[in-house]
Amino acid sequence: MKLLVILIFSGLITCCGGNSSHSLPSKLLLVSFDGFRADYLQNYEFPHLQNFIKEGVLVEHVKNVFITKTFPNHYSIVTGLYEESHGIVANSMYDVITKKHFSDFDDKDPFWWNEAVPIWVTNQLQENRSSAAAMWPGTDVPIHNTTPSYFMNYSSSVSFEERLNNITMWLMNSNPPVTFATLYWEEPDASGHKYGPEDKENMYRVLKEVDDLIGELVHKLKVLGLWENLNVIITSDHGMTQCSKDKLINLDLCIDRSSYTLVDLTPVAAVLPKINTTEVYNKLKVCNPHMNVYLKEDIPARFHYQHNDRIQPIILVADEGWTIVLNKSLPKLGDHGYDNSLSSMHPFLAAHGPAFHKGYKHSTINSVDIYPMMCHILGLKPHPNNGTFGHTKCLLVDQWCINLPEAIGIVIGALLVLTTLTCLIIIMQNRLSVPRPFSRLQLQEDDDDPLIE
């Protein structure tokens, strides 16, 4: 009976399991449209993106890392690490030991990036492989003395078409071959900040332009013969939420500017006290009910945002839609950076190619899960990371994936089969053991003696 159960489950695994054998490494293109909020997919029309999804996979929500800003989340995607681990903890940073400053306008110093190893470096160091990048954050920096073989120095003035042309040229004509490439575009983030995500008219126009760019990407790959053999991931770093002039947190009403330095501003502000930390903390703590104030050691564990020297002694976290300011003006109608549990901060992920299923939808993964999945596709050994490969197995054709309802169904089905077989065996045994009617009574040898002498 045990052997029978083993054979049943072995058969199920053989039928449902994929081929896990690896041939030559696949090619992978990772694309980010900055600030592409997940529910834009439900609220606007994306004919080109929807066609891409129909032939591939969709993850409806990607839970990104805290803080939900551009540089930290792009680095988490390509390292699989929380911000406290990879060291890019904000778009603006200060290192108290070296006195160095980091910003999105001054980000070329490898010092800030060397706490982690991004996937393009790992891929670059493999034999007979190279990497390419079109303006993904960090790709124009010699991280661990390594840049992609082909990359573009960042400039927002360079068109999407030029970036795409370079990427496709490198994918087709490089030697050693480019097996990993990244492509970054600033929209819809820039327009989300300018108009706010609730400005339907302007966001409709901008998102249509983004969808047209996706159509241009797919068309280019098909014309060049790359479409069928190239794995393409389209995702983003964060979402966007609406801000309002009625939701301002004015720090100047609570504390004098001379008592602290503001390293990073709104909606997660990094505060470096110039005087006693406790005194600054106590003043900020009662500043506004729509702002949480944390000493570094008290930052909630779920943020994974505590164990790094670049995280300042006091962190301010505004409620969704609220803006931390030093005066009464509203800098942006839309913003991000808030608590990463908020659905408005989540992006999506869509993927197409030989590594992925066709027409499959998945509810959610974490952004740090993307890294081990990409390493698997490329046949790379991942560096230690915070991602879980098992969370993305259902997206991949070479992995056996089973969800909880299916698992319960299989177990129940197997138990029913086992129960039925057991009942049949018992019935057969009982039939064999029942004596036939009118059968002659068998006497023992000494029963031949007469009863009466």
What does this 3D model show about the protein?
There is one protein chain. With 453 residues, the protein is of the alpha/beta class. The chain has 2 domains: 239 residues, Alkaline Phosphatase, subunit A; 87 residues, Gyrase A, domain 2 (2-Layer Sandwich), CATH 3.30.1360.180. 31% of the residues lie in helices and 18% in strands. Strands 6-5-7-1-8-17-2-18 form an 8-stranded mixed β-sheet, sandwiched between helices. Strand 3 and strand 4 form a beta hairpin. Helix 3 crosses helix 9 and helix 7 packs parallel to helix 9.
Distance between the termini: 56 Å
- Number of β-strand runs: 18
CATH architecture of the largest domain: 3-Layer(aba) Sandwich
Structural class of the secondary structure composition?
A: alpha/beta
- What's the average pLDDT? 91
The total tally of domains equals 2
Cofactor: Zn(2+)
Subcellular location: Cell membrane
EC number: 3.6.1.29
GO molecular function, one term: metal ion binding
Draw up the topology in text.
Elements: H1 2-16, E1 27-33, H2 40-43, H3 47-54, E2 57-63, H4 70-79, H5 83-86, E3 93-95, E4 100-102, H6 119-124, E5 130-134, E6 150-151, H7 160-173, E7 178-185, H8 189-195, H9 200-223, E8 230-235, E9 241-242, E10 248-250, E11 260-264, E12 268-273, H10 277-285, E13 291-295, E14 314-318, E15 323-325, E16 334-335, E17 349-352, E18 360-366, H11 370-378, H12 404-433
Parallel strand pairs: 1-7, 1-8, 2-18, 5-6, 5-7, 10-15
Antiparallel strand pairs: 2-17, 3-4, 8-17, 9-16, 11-12, 12-14, 13-14
Helix pairs in contact: 3-9, 7-9
